[in-house]
Amino acid sequence: MAAPQDVHVRICNQEIVKFDLEVKALIQDLEQLAKEQDKESEKQLLLQEVENHKKQMLSNQASWRKANLTCKIAIDNLEKAELLQGGDLLRQRKTTKESLAQTSSTITESLMGISRMMAQQVQQSEEAMQSLVTSSRTILDANEEFKSMSGTIQLGRKLITKYNRRELTDKLLIFLALALFLATVLYIVKKRLFPFL
Question: 0.85 cut: is pTM over it?
Answer without folding.
Answer: no
